[in-house]
Every structure is written in C-alpha cells, then in structure tokens.
Amino acid sequence: MFRFLPNFIMPESRKENSKNKPVKKFQLRGISASIFENRSEKGSPFHKVSITRTYKDGDEFKTTGSFGRDDLPLVEALARQSWFEILKREAKARSSSDEE
C-alpha cells in the first residue's frame, strides 16, 4: 500500500544541503540513481536517493521522475544497487568509528 504525503516547503538549511553533489551515481539506459549524503542535526550521516529519467524534448534534454512500464525493472535494479551502496557506506562508517 502506498501513502502519498502532501507537498511541504523545505527549510532553507535543507535547500542548501540539497545542492550537494551525489556521493555515488548509477546509470542504466537513460535512468540514473544519485545517492546523496546528508547529516542529521546530531551530525549522523544519512543517505537519500534520487531516481530520474533523462529524455530529449526537441533539442533540449530534460529529466523527470515519471517512469513507463518498461522503465520499472531498471528503476528496481538501480534502487537495489543504491541500497547496497548505502549499506556498504554505513558498514564502512561503523568500522572506522570502531577503530577510533
């Protein structure tokens, strides 16, 4: 079951963080997953993933978060790959904090 959340206005501090470059990006046939690392108020890292599809409209390239039926297996593969990457980064962060 999917729950849709209402749109909200992002606080200024979040807007600044959203300009960060992704720490990792995966691509498959015009669809990309970008992993962003952010910090909580307590300083703990957490990750967010943005999945987009690039398409050409005339001479201009555009991106969208809307996917067709045949895009969905690619979205699934990119989401899984992103999930594994985040798990790897979290494990690495835990092991380096254990060494301290």
Outline the structure in words:
With 100 residues, the chain is of the alpha+beta class. The protein has one domain. It is built from 2 helices and 4 strands; from the N terminus they run αββββα. It has helices spanning 12-17, 72-99; strands at residues 24-28, 31-39, 45-57, 60-64. The chain has a 4-stranded antiparallel beta sheet with strand order 1-2-3-4, with helices on one face. Strand 2 (31-39) and strand 3 form a beta hairpin. The longest helix is centred in the last third of the chain and has 28 residues, at 72-99. The protein is elongated. The relative contact order is 0.14.
Describe what is shown at a glance.
This protein is of the alpha+beta class and 100 residues long.
Please describe the structure with a list of short key phrases separated by commas or semicolons.
100 residues, 4 strands, 32% strand, single chain, alpha+beta, 34% helix, elongated
The number of domains is 1
CA radius of gyration is: 16 Å
Strand content: 25-35%
Overall, the morphology is elongated
Please outline the major beta sheet. 4 strands, antiparallel
Distance between the termini: 43 Å
The amount of helix comes to 25-40%
Q: Give the SSE order as H and E letters.
A: HEEEEH
Number of helices: 2
Strand order of the largest sheet: 1-2-3-4
Tally of strands = 4
Low-confidence stretches: 12-17
Oligomer: single chain
Which structural class do you get from the secondary structure elements?
Answer: alpha+beta
